[in-house]
Structure formats: C-alpha cells, structure tokens
Design goal:
- This protein is an alpha/beta fold.
- The model has no long low-confidence stretch (mean pLDDT 97).
- Among the domains are: 150 residues, 3-Layer(aba) Sandwich (Rossmann fold), CATH 3.40.50.720; 72 residues, Rna Polymerase Sigma Factor, Chain: A, CATH 1.10.1740.10.
- The N and C termini lie far apart (59 Å).
- The strands form two sheets. A seven-stranded parallel β-sheet has the order 4-3-2-1-5-6-7, sandwiched between helices. A four-stranded mixed β-sheet has the order 9-8-10-11, with helices on one face.
- The structure holds nicotinamide-adenine-dinucleotide (NAD) and magnesium ion.
- Magnesium ion binds next to helix 7.
C-alpha cells in the first residue's frame, strides 16, 4: 500500500523544510508514496521559496515579509502557482486543506500558522519546538479541538514517540533525552567568553539552522526539548532526564518500571524522523545512510553540566515554575541568540539575558491562553532588547 498525503511545508526554505521537500521528492520517485504539495512558506527569501514551490509542484506559496511579495510573484510568473505575502498569507497557507503540515518555522513566529493548522484538524509534523515551549497549553487545546495528531520531528521526541507505551504511561519510570553536548562540550566556561557565531554554529553531528545551532552550543536546545517533552508525553516533569551522548546515535530512551530501557537509534540525519512522521504509522525508505554500529565502535555517555551550561538549569526551573515562565525564557533566548549572531553580545551574555528577563518580566495574571502568551512574549522581548542596549557593545 502506498502512503498518500496532501502536505504543506511551513518554513520550506529552512534546514528542516528543505529536508522535508527532498524526502518527498525521493518518496515520490521511488513510488512508495503519492504526495501532493498544497502550500509552502518562508520568511523573506522569495527566490529560494519560488524554487522550492516549483520543484515540489506546490499550488500556493506564501512569504511572510510583505516587501518580498512582488519578487515572489515575478519568480512564479507563468508557473500557475498562486502566491501571497505578509504574516496573514502564511496563516492562509496553513489553513489550506493539507492533511499533513510540517511545522518548521523557527521561533515563536510559527505560533499563528501552527494554531491555524491545528484548529482545522491537520496532522502536524512538529519541528518548531519554540511553539510548545511558549504556548504549549494553547497548542494542545487547538490540537484537541481539531482532532489531528501531533507527530514529533525533533529527533529525541521522535525517538520517544516510537518507543513510548501510550496505553500504559504509568509503567514509564523516566524519559531520557540524549544530547550531543554541542560544539563546546569539552570547553570550560571561561574559555567561551569570546567564541564567535561561526564557532557556535559548527555543530559536530547535525547540520541545522543558525538559531538551533546556537541553542545547541548553549544547551538551551536541550532545555527547550525538556519542556517540549513535558507537553508531548504524559509523564511528570521530574521524570524527564538529560544524558549527554556525543555520538548522537541513540536519539533518546524510555526507561520502564521493569528495568527495560527502549531506545531508537539511527544515523544523525533528519530525514529519518521526518520520514517517520510523513508515513506514520507506516514507514517509507529514506536516502539516509544505514547505521553501521561496527564502524561507530564506541558509544559514550556523560551527565549534563548545569554549571557550565546554565540554560539547562534555567529551562528546568522554568518548566517547574510553569505558567508564562517558559514563554518568557524562550522569547528572551530568541532575542539574545539573534543579537549574538549579529555580534552585538558575547556568547555568555545569552544565558545572562535569559536570566535577567526571568527575574524582571512580571506578566499580568496566570492565564496561559494564546493572548496572554503573546503578551508575555512581547514583554520579554522588550526587556531583553533593553538589556542588550544597556550592555553597550
Ligand atoms: P532554519 O532557520 O533553517 O529555517 C527556518 C524557516 O522558517 C525558514 O524557511 C524561514 O524562512 C522560516 N521563518 C523564519 N522566520 C519566520 C517568520 N518570522 N515567519 C515565517 N517564517 C519564518 O531553521 P531549522 O533549522 O530548519 O529549524 C526549524 C525549526 O525546527 C526550529 O524550531 C528548530 O528548533 C526545529 N528543529 C530543527 C532541527 C534541524 O535539524 N534543523 C532539528 C530539530 C528541530
Ligand atoms: Mg533535537
């Protein structure tokens, strides 16, 4: 039986988005899947988006930046592919009738399109972790109303999804999220003061977008993933552990009460988790290199170090505090990472800015509905920007 899908890719010009489109092309060519591409979206790069839309045979392309709308129209002239621009156009793309939507926008900017796809009942291939970190309650409520399935793409969560016994969650002793440790795993904290964006984005095992690469270097990525796991899996927060595993072969594990530990393994290649969400509950072949354990030879493990990587502690505490705390931490981190990539602050300032915002931001009320989340997100961004300006670099 072939896998049939009508798909939309949000964030189609990014690392995950392009990987998804390549996988779709390979699955179509192999005859294992019949896939129609409904819509593709991007932030600003009209040419790259048009190219992706044409190659995928999409019906609609939306660029978030209103000023890039004309360039997109020109690039698609004569192809029959419709296009639009502006943040609402990205939401419109998410509202079109795809039954599978890849959420691969980076950052909280992905919330509105994600909510739109969730509300209408699409299955969501979920990469855009910041959305669950800041608006987890709202996203899960929208998914429940729509009736679609949230299929984790993040390699760790995809691994857990594959081995988690959803019928017997009370038999789970803990979830173990593996972490590569990033490019600075063996560096002492003082030596990180002057690292450059180029050094920070040079991840040892995965090739990814700039923001998540910096998050991997600070280990905020694992912090965000802990919070993501708390929303995706029915386990108590303190049962989610982090384990450093530099080879990135074991993508995560579930430890059951009888002492059995189930893991999912694979070459570190995002086509594997993406394929598992595309075909779910079926499977399709991927171009990923088969895992060769004899060649890998050794797998090692270390405890995480919250002193050298304060983002791990911040995110653990933010999850425990609950409410809007994770939204504040996420927004502050997004602003700080952007400033670091623009060389306006140093690497160690990233965690300091998050810490400052966590102390300073006092959102109104306890509600975690979408409006409250967006207000807390905006407040934290303002505080983070002021703090960056006061550092005066
Ligand atoms: P990326 O920077 O390579 O791509 C981001 C995409 O989002 C691009 O298509 C960009 O045009 C679009 N985008 C950015 N800002 C936008 C905005 N304001 N409005 C609309 N679109 C916007 O990022 P990536 O590495 O592909 O990561 C995407 C998401 O997936 C992130 O949340 C990341 O944490 C998660 N993720 C990525 C990987 C990976 O291997 N790259 C693995 C796991 C999870
Ligand atoms: Mg991950």
């Amino acid at each position: 039986m072939t896998v049939k899908r009508r798909v939309t890719v949000l964030g189609a010009t990014g690392s995950v988005g392009l990987c998804t489109l390549e996988l779709i092309a390979a699955a179509r060519a192999s005859g294992d899947a019949e896939i129609e591409v409904v819509a593709v979206t991007a932030n600003t790069n009209a040419e790259k988006l048009a190219e992706a839309a044409i190659r995928a045979g999409a019906k609609f392309a939306a660029v978030c930046d209103p000023d890039s709308g004309d360039a997109l129209k020109r690039a698609l002239a004569g192809t029959g592919i419709q296009s639009a621009s502006g943040p609402d156009a990205v939401v419109e793309a998410a509202q079109m009738d795809a039954d599978w939507v890849m959420a691969a926008i980076v950052g909280a900017a992905g919330i509105r399109p994600l909510m739109a796809a969730a509300e209408r009942g699409a299955d969501i291939a979920f990469a855009n972790k910041e959305c669950l970190v800041c608006a987890g309650d709202a996203v899960l409520a929208a998914m429940a109303r729509g009736g679609g399935r949230l299929l984790p793409v993040d390699s760790e969560h995809n691994a857990i999804f594959q081995v988690f016994d959803f019928e017997r969650p009370h038999r789970v002793r803990k979830i173990i999220l593996t972490a590569s440790g990033g490019p600075f795993r063996q560096r002492d904290r003082a030596s990180l003061k002057n690292v450059t964006p180029e050094e920070a984005v040079a991840h040892p095992n995965w090739s990814m977008g700039a923001k998540i690469s910096v998050d991997s270097a600070t280990m905020m990525n694992k912090g965000l993933e802990r919070i993501e796991a708390a929303y995706l899996f029915p386990v108590a927060h303190d049962l989610i552990d982090v384990l450093v595993h530099p080879q990135s072969v074991i993508h995560s594990m579930v430890d059951y009460v009888d002492g059995s530990v189930l893991a999912q393994l694979g070459t570190p290649d995002m086509t594997i988790p993406i394929a598992s969400t595309l075909a779910w509950p079926d499977r399709v072949p991927t171009p990923a290199k088969p895992l060769d354990l004899a060649q890998i030879g050794t797998m090692t493990f270390e405890p995480p170090d919250e002193d050298r990587f304060p983002a791990l502690r911040q995110s653990r505490e933010a999850l425990k505090a609950g409410g809007l705390t994770t939204a504040i931490m996420n927004a502050a981190n997004e602003i700080a990472v952007e400033a670091f990539l623009q060389r306006r602050i140093g690497f160690l300032d990233i965690a300091d800015i998050a810490e400052f915002c966590l102390e300073e931001a006092r959102p109104d009320g306890l509600s975690t509905d979408l409006e409250a989340v967006l207000a807390a997100d905006a407040l934290a961004r303002q505080i983070a920007l002021k703090r960056i300006a006061s550092l005066g670099r």
